[in-house]
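Hey all, quick one. A colleague (J.T.) asked me to put the guanosine-5'-triphosphate job into the tracker so the inputs and the structure tokens live in one place instead of scattered across chat threads. No bug as far as I know, just bookkeeping. Sequence used:
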Amino acid sequence: MDIKSTVKNAEDVDILINDDIEPNMMNSDIIDGFVSVEKKEMLSLASGRALSLSETYEITAAEKTKVIILIGPSACGKTTIETTLYQLFQNSIVGDYYFAGSKTLQGYEQRSYYTRTKSKQSTSTTPRTSRGAQETFLHLKLWNCKTNEYLNYLFADLSGEDFENHIADVESMQSDFNFIKSADYIIAVFDGKLLSDKRRRNGTFEEMAQLLRTIFDAGLFTIHTNLQVVISKYDIINECLPQDPTIESFITRSKVELEKRLKTYVTNINVYNVAAMPDNNTEFKVGFGIKELIESWSTTQSSRPLAFKNTKEIREVKSEFDKLYMKILGDSNE
Ligand SMILES: Nc1nc2c(ncn2[C@@H]2O[C@H](COP(=O)(O)OP(=O)(O)OP(=O)(O)O)[C@@H](O)[C@H]2O)c(=O)[nH]1
Ligand SMILES: [Mg+2]
């Protein structure tokens, strides 16, 4: 755009550089170039809160977006991972990624406050996500300097209690969590603190295995969904390892066992160790492992669920398109 042609006097410069937020105005609200005072007072600005599912359509319809859904019981560390991911970009770039905006700044700030030193707490704590919350999606826009590509991410900040109430109940999972179907990544968050505890680790694994089984049995996935596992609070695991080296073999066995139990749906599950908000940040930096997670979202994953496989039997071959579809199935299910 040629700026010179639009700048004729000092007033024009003021208009060009002012950073007032322009609300959406209808042409009918503007009379002889003036906005009606009454209308101006009624206009609402974006609040920056977390978005409801319907509010996310504006983003997903317009731009390249990855939907990432962290699942797991209460206090396993879901919200802390989401808010730390945002906070990392406040200090610097992360790998090849630059912060390029967020429509939910207030949503992030509300959740981040307690994990910041400015809240003057001796240990950082994240407020529990309330059950049944409608505004659950946090939005982050990143720019990749290598590929010169902008990408939008939508993170669902769901309450662990809500998940716990739906374990083994396929029907209610289907009706209450139908939006999980839109996920590009389902991330199962295993609580590292509980895995470090010999008496609690088996229960922690069983709970997650059943939760995932319920989600997949409810059909809440598509050909685009990937499943990842995050071991959270890795600082605690690392601290316990010298006294109990069996934690590592338990995690390795858990991955194999999970793949076995979900084998009708998933081929291979990638595991990431994360310490989003370590207690003792001398050995682990805040956000340990998060860069690897972000990078994994831009590479093709091998854990793609076998969605085609599940629909093979129920599709009748009627047209040329169906024949081609079956041919693709034949290739992908060998
Ligand atoms: N030591 C340690 N503690 C962590 C870490 N990440 C999270 N926590 C703590 O774990 C607690 C629970 O974390 P949240 O992120 O609120 O857990 P959540 O899964 O969102 O919980 P719900 O909202 O109840 O479902 C908080 O007190 C965090 O400070 C970590 O990397 N290391
Ligand atoms: Mg939470």
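Adding what we noticed when we looked at it: The chain has two domains: 4-42, 53-304. Residues 1-7, 12-30, 308-315, 325-334 have pLDDT under 50 and may be disordered.
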